Amino acid sequence: MELLFVVLGGALLGFVAHFALPAADTRGVLLAPASAAVVAAVVWEVLLLAGLRPDGGWIWIVSLVLAAVVSVVACRVAATTRRRRDREQLARLMKA
Predict the structure, then answer these.
(1) Domain range spanning residue 75?
(2) Are 67 and 14 in contact (CB under 8 A)?
(3) Interior/surface letters 15-52, b for 16+ CB within 10 angstroms, e for the rest
(4) What is the reported pTM?
(5) How many domains does the chain divide into?
(6) Residue-wise pLDDT tens for the chain (96 aa)?
(7) How far is CA 38 from CA 30, 31, 67, 91, 93, in A?
(8) 85 Cβ neighbours under 8 A, 6+ residues apart
């Protein structure tokens, strides 16, 4: 049951990151929430295997903080990559 909550928390953090960061039009609306949810689930399971208990605070903090960091990084990378490729495509089209 806790895994469901941490995945939903990660997805919620991803939605917040998508709409709070600039250049939301350069990426899909599900990129940040999906990446954050996956990271939250994987980190949660790894920490459970490492011996942390679900009722402890550190497992929640680490899982959700890493999910938030990954969603911000995914948003930033997607925005810069999309802008660079759009510029390259425009330059290629202007040559032809």
Answers:
(1) 2-95
(2) yes
(3) bbbbeebeeeebbeeebbbbbbbbbbbebbeebeeeeb
(4) 0.90
(5) 1
(6) 999 999 999 999 999 999 999 999 999 999 999 999 999 999 999 999 999 999 989 999 999 999 999 999 999 999 999 999 999 999 999 997
(7) 12, 11, 8, 36, 37
(8) none
